[in-house]
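Subject: Iron complex transport system permease protein

B.,
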Amino acid sequence: MTAGPVAEPVPEPIPAPAHARRRLRGLWLAAGALALAGAAALSLAFGARAVAWADVAAGLSGRVDTLDAAAVAVRVPRTVLAALAGAALGLSGAVMQGVTRNPLADPGILGVNAGAALAVVIGVAWFGIESVEAYLWTAILGAAAAACFVYAVGSLGRGAATPLRLALAGAATSIAASSLVVAVVLPRNDIAGGVRAWQVGGVGGASWEGILPALPFLLAGFALSLISARSLDQLALGEELAAGLGVRVARARAVAALGAVLLCGAATAVCGPIGFVGLAAPHLCRLLVGVEHRWLLPVSALAGAILLLLADVAGRLAARPAELDVGLVTAFVGAPLFIWIVRRRKVRAL
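Prediction pasted inline below.
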């Protein structure tokens, strides 16, 4: 007798839990995009003067024949800047937490924002920089110098840089940089007012002239950060195991860190140092989509944009007809979050 035809093996179906997780993450990503559109709409409609939705549509279409429509047209660059800066800070925070394997990593806590601010203040006070391009390059160089300094200090002594060492080194660097800013500005009454207002961190007075020069730096930072997602997942396994998988550890860290520095420096140059967005957004998103960076990074960018937009709206409504700078609002919200993270009994590994 001849054997019957052998049936071809049927590929195993994708396990339901993994498929369900991917579907849930996709839903969170879509929900984040919708929430970002809603936050942008609120930013256009509410402020010192509430605007009807019909006037919002008129202002977006370019018709400024009414006072409310003209107000909307003025708010458009402010809304765009808040979304870009929030996305940059949220994404850079997630990348920094992945590079350092430190759940407390944040551009503000690690002293990167303070380094960028100090560089800009020195540039203004000693070298008379005025153009947006000069602000951008100076802030990025200052952010890079601060990041390198913090990592070097955290690596001193026995063993590699630990999360606690990096947090302490970043806090000390941030305090020192802030003190140096005061020392530089104190004898310069001609620039003191403008520097202090910028140092609080805000998106008021945004214009396309200030946003457009920052776009190349932001786009480069977004690209470098997002393409580092896979290497960040491998680095989370440990340096030795990542190297065994073929990852060039130093190169992977340098590429990811460069992306984070570009994002922090550009956002700080245009908006001033804004804290806690890079800490709050990744932690919230890690609860929603998990620790896989190909999902965590884009969702953190969306969450950062939403957070900064809502903080800007809250600052405008809380002190109407005046307004609170967004840096004050994020500090008010982020400080309790930082204390909660520090006081947790066990911080999950990244």
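The radius of gyration is 22 Å.

T.
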